[in-house]
Design a protein that fits this description.
single chain, 469 residues, alpha+beta, 4-stranded mixed sheet, 26% strand
Amino acid sequence: MNSRLIFTLMIFLCFSSSSFAAKQFRAGAATANISPWMGISINGNMTDQKGTNLHDQLHARAIVLDDGENRLAICVADSCLIYREIFEEAKKIIHARSGLPVENILMSATHTHSAPAVVSIYQSEANKEYQRFLSLRLADAVLQAINQLAPAKIGWGVGSEPRQVFNRRWKLRPGVINKDPWGRTNDLVKMNPPAGSADLLDPAGPTDPDVPVVALKSLDGKPIALLANYSMHYCGGVGAATYSADYFGAFCDRVQQRLAADRQDPPFVAIMSNGTSGDCNNINFRDTPVAEPPFARINRVANALADVATAVYGKIEWHDWVPVKSAQQEIKLGVRRPKQGEVEQARMALDKTTARNLLPEIYARETVLLADFPEQVPLTLQAHRIGDLAIAAIPCEVFAEIGLELKKRSPFQQAFTIELANGYNGYLPTPTQHKLGGYETWRSRASYLEVDASVKIVDTIAALFERVK
């Protein structure tokens, strides 16, 4: 073999080795404990309630994916709602310490209704000390996951669990009086009507029973992490003044058990994110309700979803390498601010009574507070690609039909949405659902975006899908 041929072969091997190294897929996972101290208000109730008991630890759970060129972080926190500013502070810390671009970081809240108040809404006031603590711990979860990056395999799939999710908005038979907090009877639907009532006709919208799963394992087959998604609001039934991660946290525990991944080094991380559940919960309104002990419903849902997720895990096609890519866009949407006369009327109503726990007074206060909102608010929207899978991120409580539409408009083989991501901008009904009325459309700090907000958000996400494709 002459010297020129040897030299050419060496160059080829060097480039081949370099190319192979660049194609090495790596992944890492970690958690950070975000459990509160006692006495912080609980988000998730119309009236204020201070927590006095911690049933189960709350966590921020993170995975980081690296294809050799791009890196993506997903972090899901056991929280009801989280302000955009809190997420942004955590992302700044991550970027400063790791160089990870902020647009490549997806952070969301699970929407457990038994978490410390991070957002001031209805009568619960956010705890500023806990807000700062949460930003730091969100950053810690992602930074730890980055430190755990190691060669890995990745796969995804989707299961289904239709028995645990129901639309909570119902059309009622003609003639049934259905008043809103202002005494008006224009609403054509009722949220959480009496279960088993003869007044119920049909649900006002669909459900999404899909259980998407993204899984990671080491090259020797050890489970690293499992990210799942389900479009169901929360379960509740945790008992008074109790902090809990709800079914989201219980699911993580069950998956770890089913995969025999307890006490690994580094620890296995399971994550349940919330899909598009703005109008869906776990109550079958066709049936007469049955009293259950605390946590019974949470455990039932968690067990059912863990069964589905681990079944998907067992059938996953594993990949040694896939591309990851992220795209982000900020848009501004209008706010349904109250008119001056409505604000004055609300102030007068509050001046006439010392009651603050009744629905009319709660919404009168919301009207007064909304008067200080700007005419437009910014929203951060994202799309992330993992191979032939797309994940949308929306900072709202998204109606199920919107998530279903996004799946249809996605150019990818599989897609799902993580809601309450990168901020909090209230409920997101469609224009048609706005016309039907009901709790999710009542103007408050929990529902204030313009009527056409969902149309603009869906169009933006669809464009972001194309950017990451």
